[in-house]
């Protein structure tokens, strides 16, 4: 149970490390960042279970995924602000991170593997609500996220270079600076809403690293009312 606004990181982490699962009840749980273990599961009771990233964390994530880990039925809160940030920052809701930094020179076998995120409400992060970076080009090094709502963040979904084969279904990313930044390849979006953001969906190849973005799909997705109809729904920059 929550303890009067005190940092609950150590208690949550201890449960995960000992049992592989931690279930949060209703209430506010302040954290400086939870690292899921291999096959670990962090879950709540829906919107009433609020995992809040401490204001002291300037560069980090509320939850870091590993391999075969899962996050379910939680509210994950970075800020109570009800407007997107002016620029991308380094506070993330859920972070899935590997070590791939170029096309060939990394160890495929040691990349993190298949993770799932479902039923989460993610609010108020300067970086990505869900961020995938450097996870590599293996089909198995992927995240499957479904039925998540992400608002008031730098990017609802933030996929950096060298991060591929991620799958997002029935997601709603609205009122963010960017609904999605997809600079990886082979990423798939089905029945997702990228509406009412400043910019809806971005592929940016200005540094020559996002050349593989054509390998992917967005099916049944919406890109309406970007920046109250004064913005851009889909922005593809220096990509062919």
Task: Describe the structure in your own words.
The strands form three sheets. An eight-stranded parallel sheet has the order 1-4-7-10-13-16-19-21, covered by helices on one side. Strands 3-6-9-12-15-18-20-22 form an eight-stranded parallel sheet. The protein is mainly beta and 240 residues long. It is built from one helix and 22 strands. The longest helix has 11 residues, at 9-19.
Name the helicity range.
Answer: under 10%
Biggest sheet record: 8 strands, parallel
Task: Give the strand order of the largest sheet, numbering strands 1, 2, ... along the chain.
Answer: 1-4-7-10-13-16-19-21
Shape: globular
Topology:
Blueprint: H1 9-19, E1 21-23, E2 27-31, E3 34-35, E4 41-43, E5 49-53, E6 60-64, E7 70-72, E8 75-77, E9 91-97, E10 115-118, E11 121-123, E12 128-133, E13 143-146, E14 149-151, E15 155-159, E16 167-169, E17 172-174, E18 178-182, E19 188-190, E20 199-204, E21 217-219, E22 232-237
Parallel strand pairs: 1-4, 2-5, 3-6, 4-7, 5-8, 6-9, 7-10, 8-11, 9-12, 10-13, 11-14, 12-15, 13-16, 14-17, 15-18, 16-19, 18-20, 19-21, 20-22
